[in-house]
């Protein structure tokens, strides 16, 4: 099956500083893909670049195809059809993501009018239906309220309603629960997955929270310093990570069962994008790095079932992990 | 909402009382009007009679109480020079001043706001830099320097326009340009920074992400938000309509309120100065009230706060 969206060799340069180094990622219809990594690893930039939402001074290159049609550098009118209509996006901080001086009705109906052939009463009815769908009580009355009159969780629900307005094939959820309380997080994730199931919509869940991604995604890609370093089906990745960075990330999670153990931290810090090492971005922090790692950055190579890893030491790294487990 | 405005109107009245009191005290401490008007050579008994006639020999607090008593009755005193009611002298001059400040205000808005928006939307472009350099120049060059520069170029060198007086509409062009250019620069800077601030907000990205065309993102999402800080500076400019042209009227010999103020201060014509300052304070305070009202209209968050206050 051909992918819904396929990103190839996507690179972004901000003021001469490369922040994304050739990202390859595809999303199939109805699939839930997790994108994990530390802040600054390029998770959000990947999708903002793909949808042409980066500021003008960002230099974007590579290819982004939607149903086989190139959208990177497409004319503004084409992109306006894609955004919200085919690919919708919701963001991290719901409090500032809605326009504070416009009513919810204005903002919701704007999205509906842009992508659906609705007007008048049908438009209003659809806006009410969407608010009902995302669980805003008393939708008819709440439509005339302003964003500051809602709680953070409710605003994120409204953002989801707005994202659904254009019946998109893909929803990019960029850290949708990071700014919310733990109990509200669970509700929002629940809402996202139920909506996705009902509408058969694909989703990319961008998060630094591995637990959130593990529970909600079919496939996971791990990003580090502007590159995807490993991608695999969610279960395979969490059970058996190959890339040393992915191992480090998952090793830093507290185990839910078994004896308490010291959490393993990855030594060092993420390199500054303007002082990126020549070879693999993770090599300076990697216990298994060899000379070759400092020379050229490895590209993603298929390893095993449905898994790609960008590491010349992947086999050694896996053996090391299995060795530790066997001891 | 009612309480929101009751508090603001109370504050406005207090501001006016403070301004008038300050003017009253400073004027009486800064020189004897009788000496200024009758001259230092006047015989002592004439000076004493003048002081007695105008109540200047009373202790200052009695003069102050009398002054407020008169204001309460709607009397703003008479000019010590020609005995005419001060308010009449001032009102006579207002049309001349408005003939400069109103077109200058329109000029500021028509030039400054679009220039600021354009500069913000094309940040870093040659036009943005040109607007900013012009704005900084307009911001820093004092109005009398700009006025003299314009006179030098358009009156002296080119001979296109008169350098002063009030005989025809052509006499108004240079004073209006002086007032308007400086104000447009201030407004362009404010509008630009307000727009840049708003364009960097996440809700602008949200609007783009839902497929709103850029032109509409600017008009429907950015401008209504950028209007909030811009209204503040506009309100200040409305407040200067009555007496914002003191320097320019003096340079161009334009017989408006500003020039009357300069002459009245020089002569210690107390009632006239106080009358003008009262009027200035009232216009300032009124325009501030209008701004407060507009905030409530433009920003639903403030509206809610006002309702609960």
Count of beta strands of chain A: 12
- How much of the sequence lies in strands of chain A comes to 15-25%
| SSE order of chain B, one letter for each helix or strand | HHHHHHHHHHHHHH
Radius of gyration from the alpha-carbon trace of chain A, in angstroms: 21 Å
Low-confidence stretches of chain A: none
How is this structure best described in words?
The complex is a heterodimer of chains A (327) and B (309). Chain A is an alpha/beta fold. Chain A is 35% helix and 21% strand. An 8-stranded mixed β-sheet of chain A has the order 6-7-8-3-9-10-12-11, with helices on both faces. Chain A has a 4-stranded antiparallel β-sheet with strand order 2-1-4-5, covered by helices on one side. In chain A, helix 4 packs parallel to helix 7 and helix 5 (120-133) packs across helix 7 (152-164). The mean pLDDT of chain A is 87. With 309 residues, chain B is mainly α. In chain B, helix 1 (2-29) packs antiparallel against helix 13 and helix 9 (202-209) packs antiparallel against helix 10. The N and C termini of chain B lie close together (8 Å).
Quick structural summary:
The complex is a heterodimer of chains A (327) and B (309). By secondary structure, chain A is of the alpha/beta class.
């Amino acid at each position: 099956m051909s992918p819904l969206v396929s990103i190839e060799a996507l690179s972004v340069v901000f003021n001469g500083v490369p922040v994304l180094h050739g990202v390859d990622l595809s999303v199939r219809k109805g699939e839930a893909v997790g994108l994990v990594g530390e802040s600054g690893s390029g998770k959000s930039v990947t999708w903002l670049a793909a949808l042409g939402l980066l500021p003008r001074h960002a230099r974007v290159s590579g290819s982004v195809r939607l149903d086989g049609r190139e959208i990177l550098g497409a004319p503004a009118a084409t992109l306006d059809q894609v955004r919200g209509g085919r690919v919708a996006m919701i963001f991290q901080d719901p409090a500032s993501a809605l326009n504070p001086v416009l009513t919810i009705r204005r903002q919701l109906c704007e999205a509906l009018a842009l992508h659906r052939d609705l007007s008048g009463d049908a438009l209003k009815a659809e806006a009410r239906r969407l608010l009902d769908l995302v669980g805003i009580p008393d939708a008819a009355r709440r439509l005339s309220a302003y964003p500051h009159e809602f709680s953070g969780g409710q605003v994120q629900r409204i953002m989801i309603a707005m994202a659904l307005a254009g019946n998109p094939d893909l929803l990019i959820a960029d850290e949708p629960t990071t700014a919310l309380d733990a109990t509200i997080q669970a509700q929002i994730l629940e809402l996202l997955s139920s909506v996705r199931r009902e509408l058969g919509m694909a989703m990319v869940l961008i998060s630094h929270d591995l637990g959130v991604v593990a529970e909600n995604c079919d496939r996971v890609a791990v990003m580090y310093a502007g590159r995807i370093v490993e991608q695999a089906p969610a279960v395979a990745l969490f059970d058996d990570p190959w890339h040393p960075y992915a191992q480090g990330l998952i090793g830093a999670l507290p185990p839910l069962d078994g004896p308490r153990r010291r959490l393993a931290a990855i030594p060092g810090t993420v390199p500054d994008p303007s002082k990126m090492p020549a070879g693999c971005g993770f090599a300076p922090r990697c216990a298994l790095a060899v000379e070759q790692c400092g020379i050229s950055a490895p590209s993603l190579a298929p390893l095993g079932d449905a898994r790609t890893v960008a590491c010349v030491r992947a086999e050694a790294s896996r053996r090391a992990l299995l060795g530790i487990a066997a001891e | 909402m009612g309480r929101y405005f009751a508090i603001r109107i109370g504050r406005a009245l207090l501001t006016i009382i403070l301004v008038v009191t300050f003017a009253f005290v400073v004027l009486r401490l800064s020189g004897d009007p009788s000496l200024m008007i009758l001259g230092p050579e006047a015989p002592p008994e004439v000076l004493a009679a003048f002081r007695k006639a105008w109540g200047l020999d009373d202790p200052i607090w009695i003069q102050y109480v009398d002054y407020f008593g008169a204001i309460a009755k709607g009397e703003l005193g008479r000019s010590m020079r020609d005995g005419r009611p001060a308010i009449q002298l001032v009102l006579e001059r207002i049309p001349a001043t408005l003939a400069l400040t109103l077109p200058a205000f329109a000029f500021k808005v028509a030039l400054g706001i679009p220039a600021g928006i354009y500069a913000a939307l094309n940040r870093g472009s040659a036009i943005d830099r040109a607007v900013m350099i012009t704005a900084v120049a307009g911001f820093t060059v004092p109005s009398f320097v700009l006025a003299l520069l314009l006179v030098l170029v358009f009156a002296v060198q080119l001979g296109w326009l008169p350098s002063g007086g009030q005989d025809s509409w052509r006499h108004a062009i240079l004073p209006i340009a002086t007032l308007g250019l400086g104000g447009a620069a201030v407004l362009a800077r404010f509008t630009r920074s307000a727009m840049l601030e708003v364009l960097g907000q996440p809700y602008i990205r949200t609007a783009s992400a839902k497929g709103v065309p850029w032109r509409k993102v600017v008009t429907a999402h950015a401008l209504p938000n950028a209007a909030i800080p811009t209204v503040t500076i506009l309100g200040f400019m409305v407040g200067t309509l009555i007496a914002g042209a003191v320097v320019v009227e003096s340079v161009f010999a334009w017989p408006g309120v500003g020039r009357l103020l300069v002459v009245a201060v020089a002569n210690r014509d107390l009632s006239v100065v106080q009358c003008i300052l009262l009027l200035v304070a009232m216009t300032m305070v009124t325009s501030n009230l209008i701004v407060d009202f507009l905030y409530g209209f433009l920003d639903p968050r403030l509206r809610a706060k006002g309702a609960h206050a």
